[in-house]
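[step 3/7] fold_predict: job queued, chain A
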Amino acid sequence: MRKSYFIDLAKDTKTELTWNYGELVTTLETDDYYITLFLLDNFFVEIFIDKFNKELVDINIQDDDDILFAYLKDLSLGELISKC
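[step 4/7] structure written:
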């Protein structure tokens, strides 16, 4: 799937595609949100869920290296190896 195709989809369709075909990378927790990072084909997708009402707030492609590093810096290689 191309990024341009994904960008043009409705929020519900993006969410369904990501949940069904994306590979979960990791989740971050902020004061207000659970932010989950998925790998979908050849790009990363973030899903933002409100912590208090458990509703989808946003879903978007994430390709900023600094933001992606924030996810990956705390990952343990042991966790990744054990999934293989």
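[step 5/7] annotate
The two ends are 25 Å apart (CA to CA).
The mean pLDDT is 89.
exit 0
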